[in-house]
């Protein structure tokens, strides 16, 4: 961070840049010798002033510097000390930017017993006697006679819808992207009333992570009411196979000739029928697991 001023030796800026020891003495007088470190540079403030920086050896102020501003009224005027302050360096840990107290409360900060009044000029609210641009709100107001003092304006509803859609239970969440179906077709989905009905509802499934929460119609989870799971055996079952590779066939003994007469001997047709019966019996035995005909 060192910035040396390179002007003529007789100039005011040269005199200010050379006043290192004067600036150190002022810093030691302000903070003590143990808290003033090495010289870290000098930078110009204007035509008649410059600031010398010294490393600050202050507990808890790592990266800070003692800034000593020196000034001179003219080339022949003596250099004097204007101020000594502790300033943060580029790597210093600093407090966050100042935020007005009414803007410091963030979602989730409000606890039991806390009071947080609404700004009288909050653009998200409008008087209830004005048209709210929400039929459901106007219907309730008429039924009650007077209705509420304030209702959500179009801006208030738009901000809420944007916040809910971009939140944990919106269509871009990890749960919604991995879900098989969307909330809009789920039996546990309870649509909101009014102008937000088309896009938002409340989950009524105790198994769902969104139970009792406002969800977008495109949100979804694995507890959808219409999901069906096909139940099958986890053990594979082999198909029944008939193996006839081991089937043996044998010709019948004493097969009658065509010249034999039907005097108790088997005819050609009867012999063929007997052969078919033997083969059928052998096949049945193979199917029963015997492996071959007996």
From TrEMBL:
Residues 262-273, 285-294 have a biased composition (Acidic residues). It comes from the Bacteria. Residues 247-294 are annotated as: Disordered. InterPro entries: DUF3027 (IPR021391). Pfam families: DUF3027. This is DUF3027 domain-containing protein. It comes from Amycolatopsis rhizosphaerae.
